[in-house]
Amino acid sequence: MTNDRKNKKDEQLEIFRVHDKGEKLTTNQGLKVSEDEFSLKAGVRGPTLMEDFHFREKMTHFDHERIPERVVHARGYAAHGEFQVYESMKQYTRAKFLQDPTVKTPVFVRFSTVVGNRGSSDTFRDVRGFATKFYTEEGNYDLVANNMPVFFIQDGIKFPDIVHAIKPEPHNEMPQASSAHDTYWDFVVANQESAHMTMWLMSDRAIPRSFRMMEGFGVHTFRFVNDEGKAHFVKFHWKPTLGAHSLIWDEAQEIAGRDPDFHRRDLWENIERGNYPEYELGVQIIEEKDEFKFDFDILDSTKLWPEEDVPVKIIGKMTLNRNVDNVFAETEQVAFHPGHVVPGIDFTNDPLLQGRLFSYTDTQLIRLGGPNFHEIPINRPVCPFHNNQRDGYHRQTINVGKVSYHKNTLWGNTPAEASVAEGGFKHYEEKVEGRKVQARSESFADHFSQATLFWNSMSDAEKKHIINAFQFELGKVHSESVKQQVVDMFGNVNLQLATEIATYLGLTPPKSGISNITKTSPALSLENTKKTVETRKVAVILTDGFPESDVLFVLDALKSSGIQPEIISENFGKVVGNKGTELEVDNTFETTNSVLFDAVYMINGSKTSKKFNKDAAYFIDKAFSHYKPIGATHEGIKWFEVNHFVGNPGVVVGNDMRKFSKEFKEAIAAHRHWNRSVV
């Protein structure tokens, strides 16, 4: 394009260029906006009102910003399963799927990252979605959860802002699937309610080992309502039976390059093998009379209910036992909505939840092409549905008859409303009063106490990882002002944390903070999770001439405990033992890496090459530096001794196969060995 033609094109485009800096905020119609922090509510703790046209315009535009993938949670993977309650919850809720322990309710679960597009990697530092659709006899119930129990913001009107800030920066569309850039951290310092969630995002919770080893949290406060109309406040938890475990950051980055499908592959392969992921459903329950007894507002989505104060009652178990048949038809077309509830489960005035109740249906309209997304097979309820909705894009139902309105006499006023006794949904009758305001309750004003609680509850290793995460993320931020503001802000969480970040970045540490919180919540630390060897992957490094009787003994011992060994060697084909036994090679050093395994067992054999020794050394060194359990017998022991691994925590050596197998499995169950000396 010549300069003349380029200049003319620029002139044509100039009328469309908008420079927002220094301007006043307006609606799309040019109306100046006086409030963009709070949605319109009936009282400071009341529900969001439909007449808030600015909120609706802002949210509607946001919901329609991406075509065709989801605006958030675009990178997802899913599976089918079933849920069974352990005991009747009739005391608390009339929801039928929570009544009968003999009934199995079909479910569909979609796991996801939040920030990245569909083509991004599974292992980036991010929040993970954990959305469950229950196909109950009363209709579909959607528990749209995350793997963190809190969120960045307190009011739904701010959701477009946090997503705009954390998504790739619009001027260059970088970085993909990462919060390590200026706009996210600028949002944090300007919206300090995000302090608690940011602590979670910088923690090991943001880089889970597997979807199968990840907790889920409903985030919001909901209501259980029983047959008598009595309500309790409730929060939902998914607890993986394998425990909650994480990757480490260096490992997560390398996996992103070596296997960007790491989490989805792990889920798919384990279901195919019959290692069905299991999660227990837990609930925290608070009586209505105790709504104001805590030092935080229970409707604030940036706050959790400490499990030591409000115990989690385990009420049932979900098992994922079938992979999808078609990713697009099921995983991509499934439509979740926190407003898809059944009788006995109701909402509260959590202002973030109130915003989501509007947003999700609106999102599905643009993503799935119209109002009939509920007729797509993966979204159809298992019970029949009857209403007067007609036509629209992609209508599949063939409605018979000429009546499509209520009330009517031609069809006996049917379909008719159902009474509560007949299973009709009835909104909980909460008393609401107050002026119409755009404001937030003062009870939402404490932004740092629970961020400090989270920090206090971490182990030393977890604290180090949080500090390193802050250092990495802020090291990618260009604005010196934003970086200094982050340091000052998180001085209110913990001075040690802020000082170490400041020192690394060459900034001024804060001299004081506001936090004097000493309380801890052990349930928040991954160090206190369940630890098991089940479904752990172990790389077994072999060459020809390996001592087959001993090796076969160890392999059998590992498999009998639910561990998954894979044979790694220099070439594909067979490795042959010293007595002629052949084992199939699963991977070579070229096609896999230690970051894709939970542990490494090194035996070698009598026939090795220089290339094998070099590749094996790299493989073992990486596993050692990632604090993983490593074991060696026979020729492998000599290699460990030369490299000074012997004697370190989680390093198991010896030629007593029974003793070795026992100790190696114990090391694998521990997952990581943080007190190891890693240079």
UniProtKB/TrEMBL annotation:
Reactions catalysed: 2 H2O2 = O2 + 2 H2O
Protein keywords: Heme, Hydrogen peroxide, Iron, Metal-binding, Oxidoreductase, Peroxidase
Keyword Amino-acid biosynthesis listed: no
Domain Catalase core: residue ranges: 26-414
SMART domains: Catalase
Keyword presence, NAD: no
UniProt EC number: 1.11.1.6
Record protein name field: Catalase
Family: Belongs to the catalase family. HPII subfamily.
Protein role: Decomposes hydrogen peroxide into water and oxygen; serves to protect cells from the toxic effects of hydrogen peroxide.
InterPro entries cross-referenced by the UniProt entry: Catalase, Catalase_AS, Catalase_clade2, Catalase_clade2_helical, Catalase_core, Catalase_haem_BS, Catalase_immune_responsive, Catalase_large_C
One Pfam family of this chain: Catalase-rel
